[in-house]
Amino acid sequence: MDTRMSARELYERGRMLRQAKMYDRALADFRSVIQDPNYVGKAHTQAALCFRAMSRHGEAAAALRPPRHSRKHWPRQPCRPTSRCMCSISWDRPWNR
Question: Hey, what domains does the chain have and what are their CATH numbers?
């Protein structure tokens, strides 16, 4: 039996965690969902809301900016963080500090 959660399940769990003010755990779920083209825009928005609630305003703004490498396809293009990607500011950060 496959115990991995679908992107939809991870996204919904992340939303519930955000509403319960468990921002680090919610960000981890949104980080996983970001690779799904159907949820990339929604996951970035939810991550920005988490960052804003944590008073990490610069990271919240960066999460809302379209990545430079997929600007043409945003928000349907999966995020592939690179050195030029604005998303890498948020997603490369250790979550449990």
Answer: 7-91 (1.25.40)
